[in-house]
Amino acid sequence: MKESRFPNDEGEDAWMVVQVFADEHWNAYHDIRRAVLFEARGLIGYDANHPDDRRDGHFPLLLLLENTPLGAARLDLMSEQTAWVRTVAIRAERQGKGYGRMLMAGLEKFASQHRVKRLLVNAARDAVGFYEALGWAVIEAGHENPVLTKELRTRPQW
Question: Which domains occur in the chain, in start order?
Answer without folding.
Answer: 5-151 (3.40.630.30)
